[in-house]
UniProtKB/TrEMBL annotation:
Species for this entry: Exiguobacterium oxidotolerans
GO cellular component, one term: cytoplasm
Superkingdom in the source lineage: Bacteria
The TGS domain, residue ranges: 280-363
Full protein name: Ribosome-binding ATPase YchF
Length: 365
């Protein structure tokens, strides 16, 4: 599956957040394939539609889909030059699909800040610069090699050089590669290099305990929002310490606690949704009497590939998918009505799955 990496300077609240993630955790029995890597936290993706489907179908069991966060060891200035855990850090980031950058917005005299003062934009720029420098080195090296290939009249080299030079210009300007305007071919070429700054970035503003309900009165949060807006990136507000407390509560107590805090959705749940969306992920459901279950697919995936999410045999032997949109099923209230209304469709190999599809697969074994 795809994973989002949690990064940030030391003492910004990463471990606290990651601890909340592992505490919130998943019921291991439902996810036998979930990784046992201690740096990976698997959480359930909250989805109100599951509750409704459970009411409609009354299954023995309901299983949400899961999402993985990876904890990435602290970065310091100079990481791209191998300072601190620099190289290992960058290698770990290369493995993730999106980056959640935790930014310290809370003020707490008792907790040292690495650069002596809480200054979120400086912090963000410190981290982003390390990522940019690492990419710059890689792109420059590659350009040197491709230039030689262009000289020896390698047909593909000219296109690659052009794509790399667009990215180079941005990096030299201390901007992330994801802002590059590339056509489809160029994007495919550049994707190949797994540049760190090509990965989508989410900013996680970690605010004080008394600030969550009214985070925008925090000047630091405003600054982070402004910065993120320039990049078209999303900002999630959390208080890592509170998330840790929420994660320890029983599900029934959580709702009450959130109401007391004056927020609708926990910061962690917001972060899960944001990371999921940023990665272009969506959910389909299977809804049988034994089990109602949510499954993750990548937007644009066709029916057989989506069947493969459950089991590779489903993909190999795929015949068709019987599909009803969640909204149609919820509105109708039961499957019989859906069928009468002609909203239960039989879809073939070319069908592109939609978020909220409720599906039965037909396949050869
Ligand atoms: P990391 O180095 O980024 O992993 O940071 P930690 O999660 O270890 O947090 C550093 C310190 O800041 C710890 O003492 C945390 O308890 C504290 N901390 C983290 N989040 C918050 C918060 O939201 N509010 C306050 N007041 N302290 C926090």
């Amino acid at each position: 599956g795809l994973t989002a990496g949690i990064v940030g300077l030391p003492n910004v609240g990463k471990s606290t957040l990651f601890n909340a993630i592992t505490q919130a955790g998943v019921e291991a029995a439902n996810y036998p394939f979930a990784t046992i890597d201690p740096n990976v936290g698997v959480v359930e993706v909250p989805d109100a539609r599951l509750r409704k489907l459970t009411e409609l179908v009354n299954p023995k069991k309901t299983i949400p889909t899961a999402f993985e966060f990876t904890d990435i060891a602290g970065i310091v200035k100079g990481a791209s030059k191998g300072e601190g855990l620099g190289n290992k850090f960058l290698a770990n980031i290369r493995e993730v699909d999106a980056i959640c950058q935790v930014v310290r917005c809370f003020i707490d005299e008792n907790i040292t800040h690495v650069s002596g003062k809480v200054s979120p934009i400086d912090d963000i720029e410190t981290i982003n610069l390390e990522l940019i420098l690492a990419d710059l080195e890689l792109v420059e090296k590659r350009i040197q090699r491709v230039q030689k290939q262009v000289k020896s009249r390698d047909k593909n080299a000219a296109g690659e050089l052009e794509a790399l030079e667009i990215v180079l210009a941005l990096l030299e300007d201390e901007k992330p590669a994801r802002l590059a305007e590339l056509n489809e071919d160029q994007a495919a070429i550049v994707k190949h290099f797994q540049l760190l700054t090509m990965k989508p970035m989410l900013y996680v503003a970690n605010v004080g305990e008394d600030e969550v309900a009214d985070a925008d009165s925090n000047e630091n949060v405003r600054l982070v929002r402004e910065f993120a807006a320039q990049e078209g990136a999303e900002v999630i507000i959390i208080c890592a310490r509170i998330e840790e407390e929420i994660a320890e509560l029983e599900p029934e107590e959580r709702q009450e606690f959130l109401v007391d805090l004056g927020i609708e959705e926990s910061g962690l749940d917001q972060l899960i949704h944001a990371a999921y969306n940023t990665l272009g992920l969506a959910t389909y459901f299977t809804a049988g009497e034994k089990e109602v279950r949510a499954w993750t697919f990548k937007k644009g995936m066709k029916a057989p590939q989506c069947a493969g999410v459950i089991h590779s045999d489903f993909e190999r032997g795929f015949i068709r998918a019987e599909v009803v949109a969640y909204d149609d099923l919820a509105a109708a209230g039961n499957m019989a009505t859906v069928k009468e209304q002609g909203r239960y469709r039989s879809e073939g190999k070319e069908y592109v799955f939609q978020d909220g599809d409720v599906v039965t697969f037909r396949f050869n074994v």
